[in-house]
Amino acid sequence: MRNKFDEQLLLLNDELNEMGALCESAIAASAKALLSGDKALAEQAISLDNEIDQQEKVIETLCLKLLLQQQPVARDLRQISSALKMITDMERIGDQAADIAEIVRETHLKASDRTAHIGEMAKSTIKMVTDSVEAFVHQDLETARAVMAYDDIVDRLFQVVKSEVIALIASGHADAEYAVDLLMIAKYFERIGDHATNIAEWVEYAITGIHKDSSKE
Which domain holds residue 64? Predict the structure, then answer.
């Protein structure tokens, strides 16, 4: 019985890896669409969001089967319940990557050299998503905590992008609509970083039994 349970836990890890990879691809496609103005890449990011939604359902079904059929306790229970929480954040990451892509598609938006840091935000959030999922699969507390700390970098980049957009307006190189769209996209990247942080916090809970929010109470 335990061997079968372990096999299903390994399958859960594989499915989470797949969902994480889809999230990474969606963020990358939306970022490339923004930097290049390529509508085909924007459509790709939107399509990937649908795949992420389907993967969420697959993992949710697997987790519920593990809970109902295997009746796990202690650390195994924390691992499965954490996975259920993680996929909610991953689904929202897919939504926000799609939101970025939709702005690019509908407004013909393209980032300029004067807003280069928005690309850095995209790279940073991809790293956070990748590392947070790998931390869960490998039960790596150090990596999970590094993801939490890395969110400060994304937050700082958001402030830099805000400054760049303000400078663009002041110099006459951008109108208000363009500025609002860029700021909205930067905010979506910041939120992706927040969701990756949430994932890392659930990894910490799976390993230690302590969740950051509950430890503040």
Answer: 2-215
Q: What is the pTM of this model?
A: 0.91
The encoded tokens of residue 31 equal 């970022």
pLDDT in tens, 174-200: 677 888 888 999 999 999 999 999 999
The CATH number assigned to the domain holding 50 equals 1.20.58.220
Instruction: Please state the domain count of the chain.
Output: 1
Q: Which residues of the chain register pLDDT less than 70?
A: 1-2, 112-115, 173-174, 214-217
> How far apart (Å, rounded) are the C-alpha atoms in residues 82 and 126?
20
